[in-house]
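To the wet lab folks,

You asked to see what we're planning to order before we commit. Fair enough. Below is the target structure as tokens, and below that is the sequence we designed to fit it. If anything looks off to you, flag it before the synthesis order goes out.
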């Protein structure tokens, strides 16, 4: 029975491969053969390819679905020519920014490629530091949702009020920690595959460098090139990137415990050069075969991997209004103009630029943008506008140096309570209504505000300049050290 089942499944896999290849252009078929050669060489030859395990991260985005299709074609092509093929670990990080559309894209592409129940494929998701079988029907756990909300706020408060906020710094930390651990789980993987451009890899490393400095964990030295430096960097950071922000008894360990390799063996394989042809030529494969359904901003997949442009524009509008004393609209306009200029400087396709600007125009004006953004942040992240404005002022860190400015601008009626607020932030006795106000306005429990209060000032080191004029060939600069004092 087992032999009959195997023969039937092999026939199904051959049919999947033939249909998949029918969507490939001649250039893509050539790229596929080069990808196969690269994987076989990395495995140490065809005799070893059956023991070679590859990790690919999936977000449900257009490019991640296309990358998975390319890898699946390589896996099935080798299987049709040799006794064994490489193993594939497909993993996704669940977080509060997950959209139902992306999860459905993942499920449809997994189904179209017949990944479910293929013993050569692992389909995994990570939720609140727990590795689980992938299930598109499962929402982020309550504990995971709360941890993500708290981490976003904590990392966001680790800055001075004069710094333009980067709302998604926490996402860089969470993603990097996830890369480090998913590569070690269950005997680990041999290589991680990515089709990110050099500039996108650089952008991620820069964001990670900035976020690491904010949370006072050891920053890297000079990071050369791209993601080939990622795993050596992560190896020195431990398994908890938030350890300076939480006490030992508040930390969540990675689970299942005891199933993570102590010594990582993962390398990085860059296959961005395999992404051939024009974007519009991929839509038949994506839509007809994989069942990919784009959202309104699918054409705009910028380097800020976690940031919806409309939400980023909203944050910039609030910053202009509350910090700079300008109009909300002025901040939104600044963001849109600067983003468009950046896209054109990087020679993005004009339809991408036009689509981005149409997204702003279709919102219906600044007030409607504000309503939509408030709804998204409240429903997705549990973050209301009052708490977001508090984050912009970062009033708690470094002994509450920004507290008076925050109160004068946003809550002048609480100026009289400043002595009680400082006592509460030091962990001393304070009136119950003061403690309640702190929690409601910040979204953080008092114990974590106390931790922020005891932390020294954040002094970010700027990354080194890039010498090359070629954006995708430039070297990635990183901070050489972290200057930060922390009172315990």
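Sequence we intend to order:
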């Amino acid at each position: 029975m087992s032999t009959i089942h195997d023969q039937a499944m092999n026939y199904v896999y051959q049919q999947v491969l033939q249909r998949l290849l029918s969507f490939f252009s001649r250039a893509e078929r050539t790229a596929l053969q080069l990808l196969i050669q690269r994987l076989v060489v990395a495995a140490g030859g065809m005799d070893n390819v059956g023991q070679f395990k590859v990790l690919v991260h999936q977000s449900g985005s257009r490019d991640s679905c296309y990358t998975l299709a390319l890898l699946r074609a390589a896996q099935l092509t080798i299987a049709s020519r040799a006794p064994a093929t490489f193993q594939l670990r497909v993993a996704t990080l669940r977080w509060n920014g997950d959209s139902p559309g992306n999860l459905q894209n993942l499920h449809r592409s997994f189904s179209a490629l017949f990944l479910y129940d293929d013993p050569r494929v692992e389909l995994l998701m990570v939720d609140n530091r727990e590795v689980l079988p992938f299930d598109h029907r499962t929402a982020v756990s309550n504990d995971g949702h709360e941890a993500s909300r708290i981490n976003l706020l904590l990392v966001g408060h680790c800055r001075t009020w004069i710094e333009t906020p980067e709302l998604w710094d926490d996402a860089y930390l969470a993603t990097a920690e996830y890369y480090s651990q998913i590569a070690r789980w269950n005997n680990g993987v041999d290589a991680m595959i990515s089709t990110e451009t050099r500039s996108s890899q650089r952008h991620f490393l820069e964001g990670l460098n900035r976020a690491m400095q904010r949370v006072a964990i050891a920053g890297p030295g000079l990071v050369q090139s791209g993601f080939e430096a990622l795993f050596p960097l992560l190896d020195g950071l431990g398994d908890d990137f938030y350890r300076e922000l939480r006490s030992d008894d508040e930390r969540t360990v990675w689970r299942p415990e005891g199933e993570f390799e102590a010594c990582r063996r993962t390398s990085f394989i860059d296959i961005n050069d395999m992404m051939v042809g024009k974007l519009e030529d991929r839509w038949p494969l994506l839509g007809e075969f994989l069942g990919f359904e784009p959202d309104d901003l699918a054409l705009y997949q910028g380097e800020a991997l976690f940031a919806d442009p409309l939400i980023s524009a909203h944050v910039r509008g609030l910053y202009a209004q509350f910090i700079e004393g300008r109009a909300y609209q002025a901040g939104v306009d600044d963001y849109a103009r600067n983003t468009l200029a950046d896209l054109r400087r990087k020679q993005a396709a004009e339809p991408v630029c036009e689509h981005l600007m149409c997204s702003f125009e279709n919102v219906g004006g600044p007030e409607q943008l504000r309503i939509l953004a408030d709804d998204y942040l409240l429903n997705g992240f549990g973050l209301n506008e009052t708490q977001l404005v508090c984050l912009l002022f970062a009033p708690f860190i470094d002994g509450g140096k920004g507290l008076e400015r925050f109160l004068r601008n946003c809550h002048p009626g609480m100026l009289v309570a400043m002595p009680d607020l400082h006592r509460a932030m030091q962990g001393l006795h304070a009136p119950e209504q003061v403690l309640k106000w702190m929690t409601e306005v910040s979204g953080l429990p008092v114990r974590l505000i106390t931790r922020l209060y005891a932390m020294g000032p954040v002094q970010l080191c700027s990354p080194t300049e890039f010498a090359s004029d070629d954006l995708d060939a430039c070297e990635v600069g990183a901070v050489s050290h972290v200057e930060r004092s922390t009172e315990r």
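Structural context that might help your review: Confidence is low (pLDDT under 50) at residues 297-304, 464-488. The chain is about 50% helix and 5% strand.

Thanks,
Computational group
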